[in-house]
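Hey, I'm writing a tutorial for new members on how sequence and structure tokens pair up, and I'd like a real worked example in the thread rather than a made-up one. If someone can provide the structure for the chain below, I'll link this post from the tutorial.
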Amino acid sequence: QICLSLVKLLFYLAHSPLGSIVLLDFQPRQFVMVDGNLKVTDMDDASTEELSCKEDNDCTLDFPTKSFPLKCSAVGKCEGINEKKNLFNAYRYFFTYLLPHSAPPALRPLLSDILNATGDLRYGINETMKAFEKVLHLYKSGLYLQKRPLLLKDYISLKGFRTAEGEDYKCWPSYSHLGCLLSIHSAEEAAAICNSQSQCQSFIITQQRTWTGRPLASFQSSWTDLIPDTNAVVYIKRSASSGERL
């Protein structure tokens, strides 16, 4: 969410009515999340000036660990330097730390491609935006889910119940530090996640949603202490419930 919001912001800066805008003091502390969108808190160090040049050799974009040769345009400006500077800063301050983590395994190669392409400045902001939108579409639609055996049949569902809240086993990347709370596309995906975790015996799906509209599922090591909740459904492994009376 943070990286996508940042890309949308950089896309606007690259195509603003004032021309391509560069953030000269590009640091994480210069941004804040407002209603799920990344905002720049200080525009004092923004500029529409692009580096003047006479030849391509005048257009090297230097960073502490990398340098990039750019073209000198016919009007004597370093082509795309503001856009590329913003994008590489986004890569080194945000993408490097956020993109490799927390995505479903099937989407990680796509995010790795974005990371590598922006780190080498092979992608401009337009290509980066398209790549992010593709990943978001796959994520929201569930098209990233690979065909696998249907596992939900191995669970008993109890509509109108949830388990009592309390600390349980933890997983990564959980939306709650008290337990294992993950976003899912469907109950079938939740069943696959539960089967992959040795501690998991049940999971609960409520009407709570993430910013992409995906439901949240809470994975539990037991299914006792059921509480009525009209907005929830508990799924219990048949193997866990065998010999027990529901």
